[in-house]
Design goal:
homotetramer, 204 residues, alpha+beta, L-fuculose-1-phosphate Aldolase, 9-stranded mixed beta sheet, 9 strands
Amino acid sequence: MNEQALRETLTTLLRLFYAKDWVSGTGGGICAMAGPGRLLVAPTGVHKEMVEPADLFAIDPATCGVIDAAANAALKPSECSPIFAAIVRKRGAGSVVHSHALDAVLVADLAPGDVLSIRRFEMLKGLKGVGNADDHAVPVIDNTEREPELTGAVEAALKDPRFAKAHAILVRDHGAYIWGEDVWEAKRHTEVYHFLFEGTWTRR
Amino acid sequence: MNEQALRETLTTLLRLFYAKDWVSGTGGGICAMAGPGRLLVAPTGVHKEMVEPADLFAIDPATCGVIDAAANAALKPSECSPIFAAIVRKRGAGSVVHSHALDAVLVADLAPGDVLSIRRFEMLKGLKGVGNADDHAVPVIDNTEREPELTGAVEAALKDPRFAKAHAILVRDHGAYIWGEDVWEAKRHTEVYHFLFEGTWTRR
Amino acid sequence: MNEQALRETLTTLLRLFYAKDWVSGTGGGICAMAGPGRLLVAPTGVHKEMVEPADLFAIDPATCGVIDAAANAALKPSECSPIFAAIVRKRGAGSVVHSHALDAVLVADLAPGDVLSIRRFEMLKGLKGVGNADDHAVPVIDNTEREPELTGAVEAALKDPRFAKAHAILVRDHGAYIWGEDVWEAKRHTEVYHFLFEGTWTRR
Amino acid sequence: MNEQALRETLTTLLRLFYAKDWVSGTGGGICAMAGPGRLLVAPTGVHKEMVEPADLFAIDPATCGVIDAAANAALKPSECSPIFAAIVRKRGAGSVVHSHALDAVLVADLAPGDVLSIRRFEMLKGLKGVGNADDHAVPVIDNTEREPELTGAVEAALKDPRFAKAHAILVRDHGAYIWGEDVWEAKRHTEVYHFLFEGTWTRR
């Protein structure tokens, strides 16, 4: 996929996720690698279903420095950029979705400590490397007042061996980060995790 | 944004809110300032998703007098006009949404007195001047038989110091008024409050 | 509205109601008066969101006899025709919607006898002649094995003075018939009642 | 319907079912007979709402052997093919839908043994040969680690006399297979069963 097609795909996915109430009220976001050292990220503080391909920033995931700004000078890159970049670096993710879905908040309420256990769902097979007989452990971290302050806890979760098979991190009272090796796997993992979040809290 | 573009935006938002079940059965409405002393308001008693740009009235928010009637002579301005005008005058709002969402009714049921307390949601940051660690107080007023009779209670809530950071008023058994400094902030606040209403009553 | 426009409106409403899950699985239906003694009714046993304007039958509401069959000879008029015709005759309705919404089934479960009482909703004002302080009584009748067998109970409810202000009849385990003086009032009443059904059973 | 029209219908239905959250995260699928010994099946592991008519495989339901591969050489036929083929052979189905709906999972949780009993719903009449006074028995089988391993239990359920009137099999923690004599009956049965699944678990 060339960069223009990727930009169009990212904005199409934002509209899809908005329709599902995962990125309402300007919340949430998305990013994807457009090439080595080049991460496209959505702007912050804007209605996500209205983001246009030219509104995306290109940043360097090693430094979070802006390579190419959005065409509209009033835009700023997503506040999640340090977290997006950490997930790209530590897990080799090609794309990360930041969801503000209520189901992510509600399912995290059920996790007493720092882990949510998901089991007994065929849909677990929609996660790379996970089977439907697995007890799938998803890290749950506490929210912070500013989004970049989450980065330390995100990095700790990414290297925690308990979560080696997780493709998501839940942030209590907040939402989730969900990733995949490319934008299509990130979409699949995003849909699968939201199904699992809703299913797990509805079952309890 | 020129007035024609604003009229088109308001009718687009009515269709969006209808799709979310916030203005069904001809309920609810929207208004926005088109310039000094010129407030565009939707007509009353009509299917809100079918309102056309030329169907909006221009009224004077100081007097609620009609400046420009809708093109269709059968239409009347929204019954909420005195409330819309009060919110514009007292809070400097540029746009107000009147929601008939069931979630607004259900969450008000949980508030024993005249205040709903919302806390522990990242989405609180989607409200101007509010942080995710705040205990956010939203006024709750009792419903009346006719909509203009709500105006006194609305005005009292607007000047109550407990609600200085609120951008919404819940009306018991009825819905909510939600505002912002312009139509885009009103849209963002509307989506954020509906998330918070649903999240708060689902958590309890 | 001329008959062709009315036919197009009826099929548009079927698609809208299908999107809301009120006429799924070929269930439910709609009718409207196209002139004196001429009632347009949807065909039976077909996917309601796929009904085309030429697929509607014109029947005589006094006799249920077919005046003009659908263009497609494979179609049959709705099984609800005797009930539609009774509501037209006894209440002067210009349009009747038959809903198969789950909310209608669930709210009827809450009614121990033959009446559902709805109160404390501003949305009650969306029903002609009803105020938000009213205790609104909706008749609830038992289901029968074949739809035309409901006609007797429907007619009894229509003339019962307790239900003089009702614009709907709930059929236990089945759904609801909802009417208005024309197709737009029937649409408004349909949306209002579904809001009230969902709100009433969610509150309990 | 010629084969090209059938291919287009199948992909349209996948988009519809995706919008209803029945085939999210690449889960679920569909098949239909295009002629004697020729079963069209959706590919596996792809986003189902993006499947194009040329992406479908034609297989032999007697052997599950591929007759015509998808135009795109990267695609593989659905993992459900042996189950689809068994339902076609044993029940004479012309089309089978595989749903990954959460409602199917939740309702199966309510069935203590190998049968879910559904009763007191008018919508039961939407199933061929079933009346609204029936106590409708749907088989529930346990999930397995790989989808083809379900085939034995599916075949046993298909020949179990208790389930002679069932047009669906629930797979615990997984979803459902739902069929009809052609693609339109399969669509109707799919919508009806999802209504009944949601209604049954919500009532309890």
